[in-house]
Amino acid sequence: LDLHLVYRTRVTQRNRAGLCGVEECGPHPGYECSLCRGHFCDPHLADRMYPFPEGRVVVDRPASVCSHCWDRRKVWRRR
Asked: Which of 27, 61, 37 is nearest to 47 (CA)?
């Protein structure tokens, strides 16, 4: 959790400066991660099928997800 919070803080700082959430990238983030809500440029988000809870079932829906959130998806998923 601590690593994720540090990541979110840094993405927020970069976004406030008008930059993509990825450290090596520049300006003009135009897309939002469906999970962390950080803003990124197109190359740093991927459209993927992601499981979202809907009532008592889990439904796979398309979502734009940054690589940080995608790599940690098993940590956040309910069992």
From this structure: 61
